[in-house]
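Dear U.,

Please find below the material for section 3 of the report. The protein was modelled together with zinc ion; I have listed the sequence and SMILES used, followed by the predicted complex structure.
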Amino acid sequence: MLRFPVFSTIVSLVAALAVASPSVAQKYEPPIAALPANVQWHMKMAYLLMNGDVSEKNIPMMFSGIATDPKIVKPPYNVMEDNKFQIATKAFDQLYFVGWNYNGAWALKTNQGIILFSTMATPQEAQDIIEGGFHKLGLDPRSIKYIVIDHAHKDHFGSAKYLQEKYHAHVLMNAAEWDMPPYPPQPAGALPISPMPRRDIDIVDGQQLSLGGQTVTLYVTPGHTPGSVSAIIPVTDHGQKHTLLLWGATGLPATLGPTPRSGGLRQYEASLWRVAKIGIDAGVDGLVAIHPIADGTDVKAALAAKRKAGEPNPWVIGQSTFIRYMGAFIESVQASIDYHESKGEQ
Ligand SMILES: [Zn+2]
Ligand SMILES: [Zn+2]
């Protein structure tokens, strides 16, 4: 059993690009014969669009919305128990990741302070991993001016109150997340629920957040939760411009329609289509996520550490790969929708 159930629904977008090759696409054959034909078709579409860019161990996560029956979808490997390790890396000239290989935070450095995206799970993680990672990277946590929380799950807001009180940073979240009903009782051994930060700024759709001459654009992309937020983040790599999409909330909802704590699969898919279009218009050529397992930052940080002058930035995937991944992601969600509908869910 997974200790943290949320992990089992993380969709892996980009993991293990380093080992990508066309032959990988043929290696994993999900036992999908028992599923309805339209579900199989969307799973195959997702799989072929990925073209081997998702590692075999992560492929099952793409289809985690289909079934929990291990005969249909193999359980993902359990990062909670498998070799947990810490990451502190500079991904772009002004963008840094601190975390461990399951969860973390992105820091955008400007000449007037830092915008922090997500805050991990606990004040202890803030001290050990965010402040500790900042120290390793030469960043000053006292310069955190804004904290953007992509959604109000405990693994994302858990140290926001600590950072808000210690550094007087502004905390931003969509109103639907501030208003989300409290967690139901958690199973034994589950991640603790830290206190919420004091309500500060409500993110509205299309909001631009500027600091030190840099501007990120925030979009409300419901699905994983009622008011999940994604961001378009312009960066540079050795001075060369790139545009990133931070897809704010990766795990697939358990229902087709919205619930008090979820936006539902249909809204999730609509948000993906919308962000795909926004991403094309913005020229997105790189994807990042809060969970390294979803954007491959666990692998890419290691590549970045060995990167030599002139070698490509591991987080830059190009516009056409960006849209191919969005297509694969949309197909995996559509497979889940069709699966739920085949069970008679409305
Ligand atoms: Zn979540
Ligand atoms: Zn999460």
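For the text of the report, you could mention the following: Residues 6, 153, 155-156, 291 surround zinc ion (ligand 2) (CB under 6 Å).

Regards,
Y.
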